[in-house]
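[Discussion] Sanity-checking designs against the backbone

I'm trying to build intuition for which residues belong where. Below is a structure token string of 204 positions. I'd appreciate it if someone posts a full sequence so I can compare it with mine line by line.
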């Protein structure tokens, strides 16, 4: 009989294997060993490596979507506060999943056919976010309260600012010296800087 605990252990092991080695490098035998199950049992839960990969990817995209949407969509808060919360929430999600951005970039370049799987899921979230936020930004701009901005460019700014430090940290850490010596402190500083830049982009 299937149990949630066994399934969770397999998913946890699979996530680590995929993040570290990518789809092509990941081995189901290694995943089974790390999860403490037999190879046959792994295939009982997930029939193919592709199925397991898609489950991991779907859950990560869903988690990111829920966290960001929750921040951007808080009722009762002014738009600028929601945007600030959204930047923070997105950054914190990546900080909790630091291997995910590099993993997604590598998968897109090494297996372009998988891009559609990822983009289809992300586009649904982006469309929902952009329509509502653009309308609110347009209204605030008409009132003279904010600079006009294309929300698509704004979201690209947020993603670029938040993702780059995690992808490039191994390269920039020796260049930046003491400011990046403590990884956790560096990312907290970077998060505050990103929030400040996005707010400055919008405020009049």
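Best answer:
Here's mine. Compare freely.
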């Amino acid at each position: 009989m299937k149990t949630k605990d066994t399934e969770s252990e397999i998913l946890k092991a699979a996530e680590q294997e995929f993040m570290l080695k990518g789809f092509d490098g990941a081995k189901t035998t290694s995943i089974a060993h790390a999860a403490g199950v037999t190879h046959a049992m792994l295939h009982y839960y997930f029939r193919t490596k592709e199925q397991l990969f898609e489950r991991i990817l779907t859950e990560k995209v869903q988690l990111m979507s829920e966290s960001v949407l929750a921040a951007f969509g808080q009722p009762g808060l002014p738009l600028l506060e929601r945007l600030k919360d959204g930047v923070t929430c997105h950054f914190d999600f990546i900080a909790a999943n630091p291997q995910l951005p590099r993993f997604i970039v590598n998968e897109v370049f090494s297996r372009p056919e998988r891009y559609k799987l990822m983009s289809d899921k992300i586009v649904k979230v982006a469309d929902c976010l952009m329509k509502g936020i653009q309308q609110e930004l347009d209204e605030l701009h008409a009132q003279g309260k904010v600079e006009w901005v294309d929300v698509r460019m704004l979201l690209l700014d947020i993603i670029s600012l938040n993702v780059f430090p995690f992808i490039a940290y191994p390269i920039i850490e020796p260049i930046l010296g003491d400011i990046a010596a403590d990884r956790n402190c560096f990312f907290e500083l970077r998060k505050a800087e990103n929030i400040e830049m996005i707010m400055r982009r919008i405020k009049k």
